[in-house]
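Example for reference:
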Amino acid sequence: MIQAQSTTVIEGRPIAWIAGVLAAGPAFVFVYMWSVMMYLPTAFFLFVLSVPFALIIASIPMGIAVMLGGWMGTRWRATRHPAIWGLVGSLAGAALAPVLEGVIPRQHVAMIVAGAITALVARRFMAWVDPIAGPPAVS
């Protein structure tokens, strides 16, 4: 008996990358502001500045993460789950935290939480379409 091969198609990678990169700056600033108890006027100024800096800093790691997450989702259906994306995002944030240690002190918790938030935002825009299985696996 010959079975048809299922080719899984990934949809939404560019949108997921853009959404994750745009969420990286505000997510980091919000969590960092909460962790060091900054006042609101300072935080608003940091929110405005966070988006362009995050575009520079987070674009490459987010692009790699979206490509890897999409690739893993085509091979293993369990890796499509948002909890897996959040866990991997927090681990990536923890791995990248020492890189910014000299620039931003006491930011490890903010990097871990921001990594999880940006991974979940990016995951929200990813979809895998299995032609044989049926509708897209978005949720």
In short: The helical segments are 13-36, 40-75, 82-96, 108-124. Residues 1-6 have pLDDT under 50 and may be disordered. The CA atoms of residues 17 and 64 lie 9 Å apart. The beta strands are 9-11, 127-129.
